[in-house]
């Protein structure tokens, strides 16, 4: 899954929103003021540190949305390992267009490569075991789809994508619904044959209760040493 991809249909709205945020309402005042009209340029995106690359597809899309005439040449793929100074992408065309898309492209590539690199470090620590590094729903609002993609690029796995993927009973559900037994009975009655039930416990006596009652496919040990 380290070279996992998503269709442009899902990625383009995120890139468009980021470009609109940066360029609205009047475009790039600096480039308009100081860059000579018609100036052609070549820019290269380089890695600064050792890591795992992610977000290059979004970076390339940012440049193309700003100016379809730009030539964007990928020199690495999302999910690839990179070394300091390694060239990851070459962009050729109007200098003003490159500068308009530069920050959005680097923001996506930098943030997502950071997530992929950190994930890869955790995966390396568990090498040789049956442990699987998975991510949570604690994502940047609006960027979940690409941040979870970056986890895959780092060799990790996705847990739930959203609230509808599975029944995951947490401590607040247990408190609000009347205890472990009550929530497990309710979940068993409501689940479809395709939906898994996971429950989070904070204490070993809760774990014993879950095991005695049954009805959970997965038990999450929350905040335990």
Which terms summarize this structure?
225 residues, alpha/beta, 3-stranded antiparallel β-sheet, 3-stranded parallel β-sheet
Descriptive report:
The protein has 225 residues and is α/β, with parallel strands linked by helices. Helices cover 45% and strands 17% of the residues. It is built from 8 helices and 10 strands. It has helices at residues 8-23, 29-34, 56-66, 95-125, 144-153, 171-177, 180-190, 204-213, and strands at residues 40-46, 51-52, 71-74, 81-82, 87-94, 134-135, 157-158, 167-169, 197-201, 218-221. The strands form 4 sheets. A 3-stranded antiparallel beta sheet has the order 1-5-3, with helices on one face. The chain has a 3-stranded parallel beta sheet with strand order 8-9-10. Helix 5 links the parallel strand 6 (134-135) and strand 7. Helix 1 (8-23) packs across helix 3 (56-66). It starts with 7 loop residues before the first helix and ends with a strand.
| Shape verdict | elongated
Instruction: Kindly state the number of beta strands.
Output: 10
- Number of helical segments? 8
Describe the biggest sheet? 3 strands, antiparallel
Helix content: 40-55%
Distance from N terminus to C terminus (CA atoms, Å) equals 30 Å
* Structural class determined from secondary elements: alpha/beta
Average pLDDT over all residues? 96
User: How many whole angstroms does the radius of gyration measure?
Assistant: 23 Å
Which segments are poorly predicted (pLDDT under 50) over 5 or more consecutive residues? Answer: none
Into which percentage range does the β-strand content fall? 15-25%
Secondary-structure element string? HHEEHEEEHEHEEHHEHE
């Amino acid at each position: 899954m380290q070279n996992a991809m998503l269709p442009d249909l899902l990625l383009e709205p995120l890139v468009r929103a980021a470009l609109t945020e940066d360029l609205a309402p009047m475009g790039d005042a600096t480039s308009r003021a100081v860059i000579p009209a018609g100036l052609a340029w070549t820019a290269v995106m380089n890695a600064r540190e050792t890591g795992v690359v992610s977000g290059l597809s979004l970076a390339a899309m940012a440049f193309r949305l700003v100016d379809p005439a730009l030539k964007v040449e990928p020199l690495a793929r999302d999910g690839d390992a990179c070394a300091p100074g390694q060239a990851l992408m070459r962009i050729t065309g109007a200098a003003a267009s490159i500068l308009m898309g530069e920050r959005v492209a680097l923001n996506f590539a930098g943030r997502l490569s950071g997530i992929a690199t950190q994930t890869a470090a955790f995966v390396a620590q568990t090498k040789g075991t049956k442990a699987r590094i998975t991510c949570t729903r604690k994502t940047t609002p609006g960027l979940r789809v690409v941040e979870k993609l970056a986890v895959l690029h780092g060799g990790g796995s996705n847990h739930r994508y959203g609230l509808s993927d599975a029944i995951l009973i947490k401590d607040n559900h247990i408190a609000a619904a009347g205890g472990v037994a009550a929530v497990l009975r309710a979940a068993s009655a409501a689940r479809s044959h395709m939906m898994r039930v996971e429950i989070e416990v904070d204490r070993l006596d809760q774990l014993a209760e879950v095991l005695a009652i049954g009805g959970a496919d997965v038990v999450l040990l929350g905040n335990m040493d």
